[in-house]
Write a structure and sequence with these properties.
196 residues, mainly alpha, 67% helix
């Protein structure tokens, strides 16, 4: 028997056929639950997030906000992924970065690079990386350049000074102001940088 295509089941559900949604949940429950459990490693927490995922799916469908025809599973997995990140964000808070962290040995992303990290930490670090890259885009060009060279390319301040044709003190000063401005932006946008 050929399986009904996901988009047809979504349409049927939106027309009032509750069994169509039950079929979609049945079709993907093992994959979605398995994904969540692999991140949280706790059956009860995984079940809570799983339930929240499908509540969000139902609400989004009923509000008419689903528009990813033919991509139902990736859409559900993204919801599950985001709710898993929310779970870990609610568990831990990372101190806001300070402008004093400009010595040669420090990189904001030192904590993002450990290959031994468990999968849930990697999810959160990926989100932090995304948030920080977004913040950096708001900085003046000279500060952005120093941050990108230091954080994403791993250059020393001596190398940055040579690359940008300024003194080491100027490079350090730009880094300091970049971090001060990032703190302001984090406060203004109410961003919470989190890590386990």
């Amino acid at each position: 028997m050929e399986l009904t295509d996901d988009s047809k089941l979504v349409d049927s559900f939106l027309k009032g056929d509750e069994s169509a949604l039950a079929e979609l949940i049945e079709r993907y429950k093992n994959k979605v639950f398995g994904f969540i459990f692999s991140k949280v490693l706790d059956k009860n927490i995984a079940e809570d997030i799983f339930q929240d995922t499908f509540v969000k799916v139902i609400l989004t469908l009923k509000e008419g906000k689903y528009s990813e025809e033919g991509k139902f599973l990736p859409w559900i997995m993204r919801i599950a992924h985001n709710l898993t990140i929310d779970h870990f964000r609610s568990k831990a808070r990372m101190p806001i970065i300070g402008e004093t962290f400009v010595n040669e040995d420090f990189s904001i992303f030192d904590f993002l690079a450990d290959p031994e990290d468990c999968s849930e930490t990697k999810i959160i670090k990926s989100q932090i990386d995304h948030d920080l890259r977004s913040i950096i885009e708001f900085l003046p060009e000279d500060q952005k350049e120093v941050l990108n060279l230091r954080i994403f390319k791993g250059l020393s301040f001596k190398e940055i000074a040579e690359e940008t044709d300024v003194s080491i003190n100027t490079a350090l000063g730009r880094m300091r102001y970049a971090l001060i401005n990032m703190r302001k932006l984090i406060d203004e946008h109410n961003l919470t940088l989190t890590i386990v």
